[in-house]
Amino acid sequence: MKELLSFDLDQTLIETKKVHFEAWKIAFKQNKLIPPKKDKIIALLDGRNAFEVAKGLAPKLSINKLQLLRQDHHDAVRITAKYAKQISHAARILKKLKKRFKLALVSNCSHIEIDALLRATKFSKKLFDIIIGHGDVKRTKPFPDEIFKAERLLHENAKYHVGDSIYDILAAKKARVKSISVLTGISSRNKLIKYHPDFIIKNISYLPKLLSL
Question: Please, are residues 24 and 53 in contact by the beta-carbon 8 Å criterion?
Fold first, then answer.
């Protein structure tokens, strides 16, 4: 029986910083707001969900306006996904891993964003046995709900979770899953170490060797 391996999406499998930066610019303009500076936006792309990013960028907005801003960002990703790129030939790596593991994609992105990003990077959805987005659970990472839902639907406990952020580490620990951190996000090695992941690798291409494939 194949073991279950779960993955984050942004900055783990796909480079998306420019995607989200440009999408937030569009969303702010659509809401007649002045877009924040690039550094402020990028700093918040640390694994948190879009509502939390919106709240960090515009803390004085009402919840309703933040929700509209978030939705406009989701929709804008359909346009800005053209800037997305696979990290370290991620699809090729997953094809190799799929011979031994069931693969779950568990992302704080909406399915609108996930579909746009996978399509833009020619990433086949068939590589994944299941895809869980933020709309599928009440609580996103750092809570373990996305991992739990993947486990429940696939009838298999996850053995590892791979991600670039502290949110991934925290979710994995709460789900009692071994965490593998990659250094392709905005979090430094020193920051990740403070949250005690089980493993740290440079990027996704080092995963087969770590898992003895």
Answer: yes
Distance (Å) of CA 109 to CA 1, 3, 14, 48, 90: 30, 24, 12, 9, 18
- Phi and psi at 42, nearest 5°, equal -60, -40
**112-138 per-position pLDDT tens digit:** 999 999 999 999 999 999 999 999 999
In this predicted model, what pLDDT tens digit does every residue of 74-114 receive, in sequence order?
Answer: 999 999 999 999 999 999 999 999 999 999 999 999 999 99
pTM assigned to the model: 0.95
Cβ pair 6, 141 in contact under 8 A = no
Specify whether the CB–CB gap between 172 and 147 falls below 8 A.
yes
CATH T-level fold of 3-14+87-210: Rossmann fold (3.40.50)
Query: In the sheet where 158-163 sits, what is the strand order?
Result: 130-132, 101-106, 3-7, 158-163, 178-182, 199-201
Q: Where are the domains of the chain?
A: 3-14+87-210, 17-82
Q: In this structure, are residues 131 and 94 in contact, taking their beta carbons and an 8 Å threshold?
A: no
Cα angle at 187 between 182 and 193, to 5 degrees? Answer: 70
Sequence length of the chain is 213
Q: Which residues contact 208 (CB under 8 A, 6 or more apart)?
A: 93, 96, 97
